Amino acid sequence: SMEKNFLDQRGEPRVVITGVGAVTPIGNTAVDAWESLMTGRSGISTIEHFDTSDIPCKIAGTVKNFDPKFFIKPKEVRRMDRVSHLAIAAATEALNDAGYEPWSEDDDVRSGVLVGTAIGGLEYAIKSMETYRAKGFSRVSPYAIIGALPNMVSHFVSTLAKARGPINTVSTACATGTQAIGEAVELIRRGRADRMIAGGSEGLIHPSTLAGFSAMRGLSISHNHDPARACRPFTLNRDGFTVAEGAGIVVLEKMSDAVARGAKIYAEVMGHASSSDGYHIAEPDPEGRGAIRAMKWAIEDSKLEPKQIGYINAHGSSTPFNDKAETVAIKKVFGEYAYDLPVSGTKALMGHALGGAGAIEAIFTAQALQKEILPPTWNYDVPDPDCDLDYIPNKPRPKAVDYAMSNSFGLGGQNACLVLGAYR
């Protein structure tokens, strides 16, 4: 009957997180990022590596002091976009953390990869086009197209890990990282793989993205002079999100395998779901109906009741519309209990790394369960009457919770939700 404990109520394998890796504006490892999250060290700063004089927003969450050559051969570094550099570094940390050497030959086909990206190698594509325009065809790199393809992130991670099983790439804008982990869990549940490397990556601090998001009027521009305070989820005076780069990677495996090899277990993935607003390309449904469906379905997939969720890592992008819609949705899903449920927006310190965000936040959620302490919403000063929940303001809260949820709601009305459980 020990075997029974390794199957869920559907008779499918239970899946756990045994390794985490992250490269973020608030730390180049998952360990350092968590430390920043506990102490309030911001990673948002003035952009220095290109001219922002005619762009209204002049700040971003950039990864600092990152040398891809530490993880990748110098010749290879030039053949791939930053989105892949960040993912390989995060995957290296996650694999080491899980105690894995690359899989042995007979194991490699039971190991899969599912890493997402919202934009992929955009910078590489732009650079290739600029080279062609300035210098003509003879100077175009044979890697011009390959470097820009969004599936290359999963390819490079699979090559690094020698994982030769199922592979896929999720691209659902801001929901990417969360959904990639959920879909990877599904492959293990269905018996297609025994373990998966999953997550998301984005490397898009580039004039084109900054200009584009500024033209959309989505970015915070009120705090160019004080970047660390720009991202203020759920506060009254929030005025937009802050764009960031980063990658989060987790190693997922069958609980039975993890226990058998004595692995450290961060958390169990209880359930996941995605949904579509079908409402508007950028603005969330003000009634939060898509977010409500994603949260409800993820809880149902977990075979839990809403009251069992003890913490929510919110999408909390700090835009006027999103934080209000998310608050409305949480109240609809949880009823009166919503007021007793701690919620936090961890983007306050690092900004929004699009395809990487949900994966990094899944790692924060798993760390919170394992360490029994909830990350706060930093920069929370003036409460917004429309956002009246417990947002864990400005300091971490020691608390052991059994189950936690992580939300990601993105452009195109794409919603994804993960439910994690403490492993004790």
Give a short summary of the structure:
Helices cover 31% and strands 18% of the residues. It is α/β, with parallel strands linked by helices.
Question: Can you describe what's shown?
Answer:
This protein is α/β, with parallel strands linked by helices and 424 residues long. Helices cover 31% and strands 18% of the residues. It contains twelve helices and 14 strands. The protein has helices spanning 30-39, 74-77, 82-97, 122-135, 152-161, 176-189, 207-215, 255-260, 289-301, 320-334, 347-350, 354-371, and strands at residues 15-23, 44-46, 59-61, 111-116, 167-168, 195-202, 246-254, 267-276, 309-313, 343-344, 373-374, 397-398, 403-410, 414-422. The strands form three sheets. It has a ten-stranded mixed beta sheet, with helices on both faces. Helix 10 links the parallel strand 9 (309-313) and strand 10.
Please compute the radius of gyration using only Cα atoms: 20 Å
**N-to-C order of helices and strands:** EHEEHHEHHEHEHEHEHEHEHHEEEE
Which strand order spans the largest sheet, edge to edge or round the barrel?
Answer: 5-4-6-7-1-8-14-13-9-10
DSSP helix fraction = 25-40%
Q: Are there runs of 5+ residues with pLDDT below 50, and where?
A: none
* Major sheet description: 10 strands, mixed
Distance between the termini: 19 Å
The structural class is: alpha/beta
Morphology: globular
Helices, by number, come to: 12
Quote the average pLDDT: 96
Fold blueprint:
Blueprint: E1 15-23, H1 30-39, E2 44-46, E3 59-61, H2 74-77, H3 82-97, E4 111-116, H4 122-135, H5 152-161, E5 167-168, H6 176-189, E6 195-202, H7 207-215, E7 246-254, H8 255-260, E8 267-276, H9 289-301, E9 309-313, H10 320-334, E10 343-344, H11 347-350, H12 354-371, E11 373-374, E12 397-398, E13 403-410, E14 414-422
Parallel strand pairs: 4-5, 4-6, 9-10, 9-13
Antiparallel strand pairs: 1-7, 1-8, 2-3, 6-7, 8-14, 11-12, 13-14
Helix pairs in contact: 3-5, 6-12, 9-10
